[in-house]
């Protein structure tokens, strides 16, 4: 008999004579003539209550139904006698599929996030991480829906690449060379590059995305990206997922419009489809979560240019750790001041000084700023980074020279400016940062199944 997911049993509108349930025991309570089991199968936050009567032939099995054990139950779905749930299952038979020894680490509730990070192989079985990863799955689906509904094509850009899109030199090398550095090649010669040139894990699919946008018009990527920046913060991971749309015939304003409606769409979708999980987060993780998400979903975002943002920060009278001046990068503390204190909502900052931005951004007519934009949100700071791209060949060449980039290495990128060049724009949304926004979870390590951060890759 096929098992039914617990979320469907709990939502049933009628009793069912024969059901099969498969899951893991959360708790067991023994009375004289029966035992109560709470079973969870990951399909929803709630457990299913199962009653095992002492008259059952395999009742002695109940002894082994400890917290953490895998179990299968056959029985009937009946209105619950107790309070707190509409339905329960009265067992006809039970089978212990896999026992859990007395050292099972998740016996009790209320473990710290740090403790759970140390058992990343078991933490998906906790209430919190079950909720996080159900929301993560749904958010991925909503992202595809958003773009597919708007006729954007999904493009798979490579993970191994020879180019440094962001020009920040924060790339992981891809090599077949043994860890000793040399070897296997006769007289201690350096090994040949497997791909004929140095290669790296990609920091962004943007450059390849531009290739496809200048053929298929509107595209998006959604895949893993890697950054070897040594920043041990709660918002940075060495491996994270990014969504990067790229639009041909699109200027900076259209790019900001899309980014803002994208973020709002994802917030709204989570509110509409993950209500139980959001209530859980609102109760145990962040008491202001649901009102904040409702406000983000309903209001348009504030827009201001970089110069105005700097003025506001200077006028704030706040003693920031990093002083602000025109030409400096906005730090997380500045971004959070703008979104949390000054505007109390998301803010899109655009037209940054060209010196602090990558080579591919389009120079504005003032000759000083580029058509860049960042979407900032409360609690996190930057969640989206994007720009209009430099589509004029001679300007691009000048940018590359200024950034010390070997133009010949990017001959294919420059070709796009020689054959049918067109104004085009795009942005990157950090998938984990978006998850932090919708769950209220404040550490990026807790919204990704297996966090990769400096010094840590156990699981
Ligand atoms: O601002 P970034 O570096 O922009 C790009 O990579 C562009 N090529 C995107 C584009 O225009 N197609 O990164 C984009 C977003 C950031 O706003 C942030 O949300 C996320 O990616 N991000 C990170 N998330 C987690 N850990 C890190 N180390 C991150 N670095 C960037
Ligand atoms: Mg950025």
Word description of this protein:
- This protein has 459 residues and is an alpha+beta fold.
- The protein has two domains: 6-98, OB fold (Dihydrolipoamide Acetyltransferase, E2P) (Beta Barrel), CATH 2.40.50; 123-165 and 203-446, Bira Bifunctional Protein, Domain 2 (BirA Bifunctional Protein, domain 2), CATH 3.30.930.10.
- The protein contains twelve helices and 16 strands.
- It has an eight-stranded mixed beta sheet. Strands 1-2-3-5-4 form a five-stranded mixed barrel.
- Strand 2 (34-40) and strand 3 (48-53) form a beta hairpin.
- Helix 3 packs across helix 6 (275-284).
- The radius of gyration is 27 Å and the shape is elongated.
- The two termini are 35 Å apart.
- The mean pLDDT is 95.
- 4-amino-1,4-dioxobutan-2-aminium adenosine-5'-monophosphate is lined by residues 165-166, 204, 206, 227, 236-237, 240, 242, 244, 382-387, 426-428, 430, 432-433, 444.
- 4-amino-1,4-dioxobutan-2-aminium adenosine-5'-monophosphate binds at residues 165-166, 204, 206, 227, 236-237, 240, 242, 244, 382-387, 426-428, 430, 432-433, 444.
Largest sheet: 8 strands, mixed
Helical proportion? 25-40%
Tell me the Rg in angstroms.
27 Å
The CATH class of the largest domain is: Alpha Beta
Quote the average pLDDT. 95
Low-confidence stretches: none
Looking at the structure, the CATH topology of the largest domain is: BirA Bifunctional Protein, domain 2
CATH architectural label of the largest domain:
2-Layer Sandwich
Span between termini: 35 Å
Strand content: 15-25%
Order of helices and strands: HEEEEEHHEEEEHEEHHHEHHEEEHHEH
